[in-house]
Amino acid sequence: LFCIEEEQIVSLKLFKMVYFKAAATALLTLGATTAWQPTTPSFASRGLYQGNGVASRSALSVVTDPTTPTIGGGGGMFTATNAESRRVVPENPNGRPTMKIVYVVLESQYQSSMTAAVKRINAGNENMAVECVGYLLEELRNDDAYEQFKKDVNDANMFIGSLIFVQELAEKVIDVVQPARDKLDAVLVFPSMPEVMRLNKVGSFTMKNLGQSKSVVADFMKKKKQEDGSSFEEGMLKLLRTLPKVLKFLPSDKAADARTFMMSFQYWLGGSPENLQSLIQMVGQDYVGPIKANMEGKQKMIAEEPLLLPDKAIWHPVAPDVVFETPAEYFKWYDNEFCPDAGIDPKTAPTIGILLQKSHINTKDDTHYVSLIAELESRGARVVALYSGGLDYSGPVEEYFYGTDGKPIVDTVINLTGFALVGGPASQDHKKAAQVLKKLNVPYMCAVPLVFQSFEEWQSSELGLHPIQVALQVSLPEIDGAIEPIIFAGREGATGRSVPLADRVNLLADRGLKWANLKNKEKKDKKIAITIFSFPPDKGNVGTAAYLDVFDSIKAVLGQLKSEGYDVGDAPMSKEAIMESVLNDPEAKISSPELNVAYRMSTDEYYELTPYATDLEENWGPAPGNLNSDGQNLVVYGKQFGNVFIGVQPSFGYEGDPMRLLFAKSASPHHGFAAYYTYLEKIFKADAVLHFGTHGSLEFMPGKQVGMSGTCYPDRLINSLPSAYLYAANNPSEATIAKRRSYSATVSYLTPPAENAGLYKGLKELKELISSYQGLRENEGRGPAIVNSIVSTAFTCNLDKDIDLPSLENYNAANDTPERRDDIVGKVYSQIMQIESRLLPCGLHTVGVPPTAEEAIATLVNIAQLDRPEDGIEGLPRVIASSVGRDINDVYRGNNQGVLKDVELNDKITNAARAAVRALVQQSTDSSGRVKEVKSVFDDMAGAFGSMMGQKKVYTKAIIDAGFPKVEEARLQGVMAYLEFCLKQVVANNELGGIMELLNGEFLMPAPGGDPIRNPDVLPTGRNMHALDPSSIPTQAAVEVSEGVVRKLLEKLADENDGAFPESIAFTLWGTDNIKTYGESLAQVLALVGVRPVSDSLGRVNKVELIPLEELGRPRIDVVVSCSGVFRDLFINQMNLMDRGIKMAAEADEPLDQNFVRKHALEQAEELGITLREAAARVFSNSAGSYSANVGLAIENGGWEDETQLQEQFLTRKGFAFNADKPGMMESQAALFKSALKNVDVTFQNLDSSEISITDVSHYYDSDPTKVVQGLRDDKKKPMSLMADTTTANAQVRTLSETVRLDARTKLLNPKFYEGMLSTGYEGVREIQKRLRNTMGWSATAGEVDNFVFEDANDTFINDPEMQKRLLDTNPNAFRDMVTTFLEANGRGYWDTSEENIERLQELYAEVEDRIEGV
Questions:
Q1: What pLDDT is recorded for position 229?
Q2: Of 141, 481, 1021, 1363, which has fewest CB within 10 angstroms of its CB?
Q3: What are phi and psi of 1182, to 5 degrees?
Q4: How far apart are CA 825 and CA 1077, in angstroms?
Q5: What's the pLDDT score for residue 338?
Q6: Could you give the C-alpha distances from 308 to 35, 270, 292, 327, 361, in angstroms and in order?
Q7: C-alpha distances in Å from residue 936, one per residue of 942, 977, 1217
């Protein structure tokens, strides 16, 4: 490598590897190379560990935050500190030449060392003086700081940069340093983005080609990894450590500059004042002109050799040796000397494993580590704390966390680095990490030190943890399987040193030991609190959870607990008996609205045991209040069986209060809610709580988004209780909120398999008529008569609302042409095929019950339809269509346009695909109709022999039999092998196992959440669900799909508006949707505005660029984006991306008729008296810690007076703007929000999953602004409402009213749906009523529900006496809600019906009330 004469070889070859691949973690995880002994004593030696043992708790009280929180979050910045605290000017140069150094770093750990180094030089070096100023990268967002930075660089001698990894700020650094580079004497840029590292300059040494040429070293390292399995980073570190020694022996004229850079890098990694002093003196004497001249004829400083600590070792703050290189050495000292003195019994004490960053050990910046270790040991626990100098902690974990017998010696692991286990934030290997952690099989917590914020900045920020830290240090560890991102330390604002936060360290120690307790405690003695939900709060809604049969599932869990040795007392083993025990209080009168009372808590006991109780009085007055109260005591509802308590979580409490619903920020929990969790922890003394189903209210209580403080309500409520949370696999976004805000380990459960909706009544008759027409279309006698019947029946089924049908009065098909008849039949056929093939989950899921073979077929058919180009897999419909010479996309296009032959072909292809999947599954189906073991159709001898003899596979034969004789078996193999793999995942069953692993204190394997059809890796369920790396979206595939949807959307709008484009579209963005689709709807927003997302040099999407108008070929469409609170929490970096892109468009100097963003922003700027940039704010959400517009809450609980109230709620709660120029806050901008909305022509949402549609949940109408916009527009015209449907491979854009009709026909009015729900009993009635209520929600917010939907629903559920009785007997409370909803829909003017119907409903209401009250 080094014999090449080109002096840039180190730059081009080595540093491409060093910086490009491991950049983000080099500083944070490599560690310093010298053991710096500071002049001030370390934390450990200041008396925390005194005499013979650990200090008392009170000794730890010194490590509280020295700053006082200020309100406001630093004017919208996450980092509000000032560079002037890092400015050092020599007091007395005494004629010495002075060099000026400017440095920019990501985090502040260098501040104290740099200041000390400069002061030492100024005090003791006769040949030079130094002026120095440092900037934290985040500070450059501030305009004043940025201007000062420019001035400082302009008269500097040396620039130093490190860890510059935020694209927009990297560009700011380049913009300032690049013009000054030639006159700077030296530019030293350590691990940063390649474009920043190209600024490097030390004499002739540069990195101008970094990242642009092929690297022989990288190739060598890749080959080495393949050969011996060593990680890339480990090999790189070994190479890096030897380089300074190698460089010594190179010819000095060629390598001196490269050697200086390498030595500088070593000193920088050292991080101590001594190291940085050596760096400054070395570069100063050789490269800074005046100092170099001053040194002529004088003795130069000779660099000291670095003293190295071992790369990995066990560390303890009061050990006589600095570190221990083997567990045997450590435990010999620890168990025999330390533990007896500390009062710890090594034989019985729980053992906590801790992962540390080496850099903090080297620099003695370790107070936060010492604090946690002391807390754990003061509670009687043993501690094994290891560090690693590399990026891969899997080796040290394997080496130090196992005993000589090969068994784990730790009961819980707490990672204090905040990074992923393998590879840090640079290049993770999540699969390897999960395998290592599963082998260890103990709970794995990943706590987070504040890096970019001081404590005061974090405490005063409503958003909490900095978004870049959330992406690197919360999202990535979650993919390893980590839980509980608790903030435990940060930096002290004035010095930049690490400081522990006492209450957070206490919490972390408590929670770590509680998880260890689950591993060690006898099962018969463990207490488990199962928590169920009731939403909206009503007796008919107890046990609410998305698509889950809650009480049947509790029965399964109780059975499993009992079989494993837990004490479940006399718990009944039937669903009905469990339900009865929770729902009905035997002490109360018959059919009381009161649930079973488990405990009455006096107010004295409540105030004594709930430390934050008085804080709730501001919202709710003194306890007990009137919620979960009998007037004197607070009441806990539920039932105890042995050591298992089944409790009902109270509701938010403000559902029916119009005034509280209107508040911009959500209220605190009420006293009853707080009392419930106080009871679980301090009276029942639960060892763990199992939250049962999607979802409760705990995780949505007010507090920071991520990185809870001790005053955030989710943190206060859950306190030290380990929480397992059963969450629907298709809802990773809200599951992630539960993980981060309520410290819950999630266990995914399957949603019911989606089946085809099928046809019924008139729709079924229509299909039969069309089938007859296909056979008789040439018959001039019968053909036209059938067409007349089709038209008549289509009107009866209200299809005239969806397709253009001829007039019923005067149409006669006999007078029409055959082509026109085909056209009518084709359109009707296409419409009923949309209804028939619409996917709907049938029934409810029971935990631990895998799907039947028939249900597996339904899921696999949907998986089979999608192309998966990233895996080289063609969808089944594509392969089948190609066998008849057609492209499936053309077939879909013709089908959507109602072309009869294409509708027929699409139907035929669908049936053939279903037949192929059925043939595959039937190979493995047993006599009970289930798949216990998947029998492969690819690897059996008989199959191989059959292939040799020309025999077709069963699935090929099924497709041939379905009418496609030319289908190619070879092309089918990829998709069918994939489906076989998916079948194994679908029928695997670990839900009960996953729950028990958590309750037994074991490591639960991680898995992505999302749509199992789009991403079968979601299966099998029963694993710890995570979201995705937020910096990875939108993916290129998502961008391509979104461009297609935007094209269809604009075509539809232009067609209906004489070719004119809309000027502004209101968008709603959801967290789960963007996880499932990898950012499709986010990409749609960018596409409309005419900006494209750009990946940076590390592959992260954090930059946008304008698409030129010529390339765009249309105007830039303005957007108003309403982000859900969950989207805000998970994707704040993507909100930043959108805001920057929209502002870029607004500031583009383009014709206003081609740039509607600019047109409207200019008008708003003039109207509101603000700048153009301020007026271009278009990305809105709730205030931090608040969720939803509360419109859904109001409608579900009837707590609203009129639509004006709902619209005011939307504007008040969703009117907080995100501003990329002030990313640390969500700012109330109601006037700007209204001003932007009044220009909106179209409202738009996406449907991306068959499992959750627009009447399944209230979220969709809760955030729909259609009537809000109508009220704000000057012409009061209602905007057009559209929905993109990407639930199938055939993506479509429909009007909202079309979508509501489709949803009603396939769910609420469909016997297949409601009979499936009723088969589950009590919960099923509630599910039907929920969809009726949500349908009315669309009337309230958008006015897009046809009268026939309510009329047909009334005929189905009310006018049918038999159905009415079934509903009343099964769940009278939910049936009462249904009757109420019909009456309310009529009373509010959404449903026009006969007096007879209204009278019947009123009588029914009185009858149901009597039934419920036992009259």
A1: 41
A2: 1363
A3: -75, 170
A4: 35
A5: 95
A6: 7, 10, 31, 20, 12
A7: 11, 9, 54
pLDDT in the model for residue 1132: 85
3-state secondary structure 957-976: HHHHHCCCCCCCHHHHHHHH
pLDDT of residue 1116: 97
Q: Is the pTM of this model over 0.85?
A: no
Residue 615 backbone phi and psi in degrees, to 5? -65, -25
Pairing of strands 201-202, 205-206: antiparallel
- Cα Rg, the chain, nearest whole Å: 34
Q: How confident is the model at residue 25 (pLDDT cuts 50, 70, 90)?
A: very low
In this structure, the number of other CB atoms found within 10 A of the CB of residue 622 comes to 12
**pLDDT for res 544:** 78
The whole-number pLDDT of residue 325 equals 94
Whether the CB-CB separation of 341 and 52 falls below 8 Å is answered with yes
Say if residues 283 and 200 touch (Cβ distance below 8 Å): no
Beta strands 528-532; 98-105: pairing state: unpaired
- Spatial neighbors of 1355 by CB under 8 A, at least 6 apart, are none
HSE value, Cβ hemisphere, 13 Å, CA-based, for 1098: 28
3-state class (DSSP) for residue 195: helix
Distance CA 72, CA 388 (A): 38
From first CA to last CA, the distance across the chain in angstroms is 93
Please write the tens of the pLDDT for every residue from 1051-1077: 889 888 888 999 999 999 988 888 888
* Per-residue pLDDT at 35: 27
CB 267 within 8 A of CB 276: yes
**Contacts of 1283 by beta carbon, 8 Å cutoff, 6+ apart:** 1244, 1245, 1246, 1247, 1254, 1293, 1294, 1295, 1296, 1299
Structure tokens at 910: 């669908």
Contacts of 1345 (CB under 8 A, 6+ apart): 1297, 1300, 1335, 1336, 1338, 1339, 1390
720 vs 637, 1057, 1185, CA distance in Å? 22, 59, 21
HEC string of 477-534?
Answer: HHHHCCECCCEEEEECCCCCCEEECHHHHHHHHHHHHHHHHHHHCCHHHCCEEEEECE
Instruction: Report DSSP state, residue 638.
Output: E
Which residue in this structure is represented by tokens 């059919």?
Answer: 591
Tokens 């729900």 correspond to what residue?
Answer: 1317
Q: How far apart are CA 949 and CA 945, in angstroms?
A: 6
Higher pLDDT, 1178 or 938: 1178
* pLDDT value of residue 775: 86
DSSP 1246-1281: EE--SSS-TTT-SHHHHT--HHHHHHHSTT-PPPEE
- Judge whether 994 and 521 are in contact, CB under 8 Å: no
H-helix or E-strand containing 901? helix 900-922
User: What pLDDT, on the 0 to 100 scale, is given for residue 249?
Assistant: 57
Amino acid identity of residue 169, one-letter, is L
CA torsion angle for 722, 726, 731, 737 (degrees, to 10)?
-20
Query: Is the pLDDT confidence value at 780 over 90?
Result: no
Tens-digit pLDDT profile for residues 640-685? 999 999 999 998 877 666 666 666 677 789 999 999 999 999 999 9
The reported pLDDT for the residue numbered 54 is: 35
Q: Helix, strand, or coil here: 1031?
A: helix
Q: What percent of the chain has pLDDT over 90?
A: 56
Using left for φ > 0, alpha for ψ between -120 and 50, and beta otherwise, residue 305 falls in beta
For 487-520, b where at least 16 C-beta lie within 10 A, e where not — what string?
A: bbbbbbbeebbbbbbbebbbbbbbbbbbbbbbbe
Q: Which residues pair with 1283 in a beta bridge?
A: 1245, 1294
d(CA 1272, CA 628): 40
